[in-house]
Design goal:
Structural class: mainly alpha
Largest sheet: 2 strands, antiparallel
CATH topology of the largest domain: Dna Ligase, domain 1
Strand order of the largest sheet: 1-2
CATH superfamily of the largest domain: Endolytic murein transglycosylase
CATH class of the largest domain: Alpha Beta
Low-confidence stretches: 19-25, 42-46
Distance between the termini: 74 Å
Mean pLDDT: 87
Helix content: 40-55%
């Protein structure tokens, strides 16, 4: 690019001013009076008003000259040569970090450089709620442009990938820890990396204390996660340990778990209305038809459910029914349970 004599004069003048102030690189630059900086800065382009937000992508491996040119073209800085001189004087021409940045047009070259070397790139917030299954998590990935739904489902069932992240089973169902994850907006297409982070977070929560408690009772990690996923889908508020007690008691007595969400797992979207035909459908996850735990988790359990799975409440409850207010009524006998069922079913019908 060709520079006017006036532009070159001003660039040289910057160096002279820095030297006159007493050196010190960027400290010297910051000590230049704003009036002098304003004089040194070429007039902003009329087509790019100052103070407007601009999203700038700094590719990996981009040179200082390429970055400076892009900043000038987008109106973030007014002169690429000034930006390069500031970076050179500060000795930071190689410390700019790749990524996507939110910058303002008409900004000071030194301030822009500060942001680019800080690495404070735009971040994408991805939230996976507790109780989501792999199909729902796949939708979250796709909606955020991280990974296509089919690609996600293939990845979480990939045997080699499961081995890589330290999970035994047929899929990562139950091991994708529900949380809010921040990822660089420029790197959001790296879906596998985010999946790794989710599994790593699971391992952090399923810590030594939880694992040792499970081992003391002879429970495998897969069994704990499976039970925790049932608790997650049934418990409300602070009921996790009570729901866990019901399931533990029923398992101990050889009773079927009769957990409603298992009835439609892999058959219908979670939250769908459960019909009599659903209850009677024979499939491996339907705990109205099978004895014991289903063959694997049905959702991603949170911390409270994982802990409750190994630490049930010390209660003799065998049943619970929704009270239609977000909580459950727990019972120790079938007779008592049926009374509560009749009460809450009638009350619910009355509301309809």
């Amino acid at each position: 690019m060709r520079f006017s004599v006036f532009s070159v004069f001003k660039a040289v003048l910057i160096v002279a001013v820095l030297a006159a102030v007493g050196g010190g690189g960027y400290l010297a630059y910051k000590r230049i009076p704003s009036s002098v900086k304003e004089f040194l800065r070429p007039a902003a382009r009329e087509a790019v008003p100052p103070g407007q937000e601009v999203i700038v992508q700094v590719p990996k491996g981009a040179s200082l000259g390429q970055v400076a040119a892009e900043l000038e073209n987008r109106g973030v800085i007014s002169n690429r040569l000034v930006f390069r001189l500031v970076a050179l004087i500060r000795g930071e021409q190689r410390t700019i970090k790749a990524g996507e940045y939110s910058l303002k047009t008409g900004s000071d070259a030194g301030d822009v450089l500060d942001q680019l070397i800080s690495g404070k790139t735009l971040m994408l917030s991805v939230t996976v709620p507790e109780g989501y299954n792999i199909w729902q998590v796949a939708d979250v990935f796709q909606q955020n442009g991280i990974m296509g739904r089919d690609a996600f489902l293939t990845t979480v069932r990939d045997k080699a990938f499961l081995k890589e992240v330290g999970v035994e089973g047929d899929s990562l169902e139950g091991y994708l820890f529900p949380d809010t994850y921040l990822i660089p907006a420029s790197d959001k297409s790296n879906g596998r990396q985010l999946i790794r982070r989710m599994v790593k977070r699971f391992h952090e929560i399923y810590d030594r204390h939880v694992r040792e408690t499970a081992e003391q009772h002879g429970w495998s990690t897969a069994q704990v996660v499976t039970l925790a996923s049932l608790i997650e889908k049934e418990a409300r508020a602070s009921e996790h340990q009570l729901v866990s007690a019901v399931f533990h008691n029923r398992l101990r007595k050889g009773m079927r778990l009769d957990c409603d969400p298992t009835v439609i797992y892999g058959i219908k979207p979670m939250g769908s209305k459960i019909t009599r035909a659903d209850l009677e459908r024979k499939h491996p996850y339907n705990t109205y038809q099978i004895q014991g735990l289903p063959p694997g988790p049905i959702a991603s359990p949170g911390r409270a459910s994982l802990i409750a799975a190994v630490k049930p409440a010390d209660e003799d409850y065998l049943y619970f029914v929704a009270k239609n207010d977000g909580t459950h009524q727990f019972s120790k006998s079938l007779q008592e349970h049926n009374q509560w069922v009749n009460l809450y079913q009638r009350r619910n019908q009355g509301h309809n």
